[in-house]
Amino acid sequence: MLGKGKTGSSAIGPCSRYVEATARGERETAPMCRNITTLRGLEPPATAEEIEAAARQYVRKVSGVQTTSAATEAAFAVAVERVTAATTELLAALPPRRQPPRTEPPLRRLAARPAG
Question: Who has greater pLDDT, 32 or 54?
Fold first, then answer.
C-alpha cells in the first residue's frame, strides 16, 4: 500500500515518488512524505541510508525547504548531517522493541515492489 495516505490517494503518492527520486539521487526535488516511518525495532536494523532518508525528510518538513538553493544548501546539509547522527545515536541507545513497527520504511517498500 505504498503512498496511500489518510485521504485515500493513489498508490503512487508523494511518499513513493520521494523514495523513487531518492533512489535516483534526486533528493531535494521530490515531494514530501507526510509521515516519517518508525526505524526502531526493524529486522534487519535500519540502515545508514534509511536513517539519512528519515533525517532528510524531517529537515525538509520542519524547514519547509522543498528544493535547496545556494542560500539554503549549506544549512540544510548541516541539519541533515546532525539529525542523522542524533538519530543513529538514539537508535543505538534505546532498548529493543517488544514488537516490530507496523510499517516498513519507504526504501524497503520500494525494494520489495516488483520491477515494472
Answer: 54
